[in-house]
Amino acid sequence: SFNLLGRGGRLNDPLLAVLGLSPDYLQFGAGLLQPVFEGGALNAGIAAATAGQREAVASYGQAMLSAFREVETALANESYFRQRLGNLQDEAESMTSAVKLAKDKFIAGVINMQNLLQMEERLEAAQQQVIEATTGILINRVDLHLALGGSV
Which of 95, 115, 96 is nearest to 105 (CA)? Predict the structure, then answer.
C-alpha cells in the first residue's frame, strides 16, 4: 500500500508568543508498505480465483447443453406426437364408420347387441387415445415453451 500524509499549522509556543513570533510550519510524509513474507497466500488466492472461474465456465457450458437437449427433445417429440395423433384420428374415424355399419346390421338382425356394444367400446377407446395424444401434444408444447426460456 502507498499513503501520503500532510499537515500544516502555526506553532503555538508560549515563549515565542511573548516575543511575538509564531512561526508557520508544514509537515509532509510518505509511506510505502509491502508485506515481506505472506507464505504464498497471494499465489494461492490467484489459484483459487482461477479455479472458481473455470468452474463457473464449466457450469455455464453444462447448463447450455442441458437447455439445447431439452429443446431438441421437445421438437422431436412434437413430430412424433403429431404423427401418432394422425394415426389415432384415422383409427377413430374407421371405428366410427364400423359402428355405423354395425348399427345397421343390428337393426337388420344380422348381429346381436353384444357385438354392437363391443364395437362401440372400441370406438370409445379409440376416441380416448385421440384425447390422450392431443394432451401429449399440448404438454409437449408447454415443455418446449419452458425450454426456450418462457415463463409459466
Answer: 115
How far apart CA 132 and CA 87 sit, in angstroms, is 13
Q: Please give the Cα distance from 8 to 45 (Å, whole number).
A: 41
The number of angstroms, rounded, from the C-alpha of 98 to the middle of its chain's C-alpha atoms is: 49
Q: What are the beta bridge partners of residue 32?
A: 2
Confidence of residue 39 (pLDDT cuts 50, 70, 90): low
Using one digit for the tens of pLDDT, what is the confidence trace for 75-101? 998 999 999 999 999 999 999 999 999
For 43, 57, 62, 63, the CA distances from 54, given in Å and listed in that order, are 17, 5, 12, 14
User: What pLDDT score was predicted for residue 151?
Assistant: 79
Asked if residue 135 has pLDDT above 60, the reply is yes
Contacts of 143 (CB under 8 A, 6+ apart): 70, 74, 77
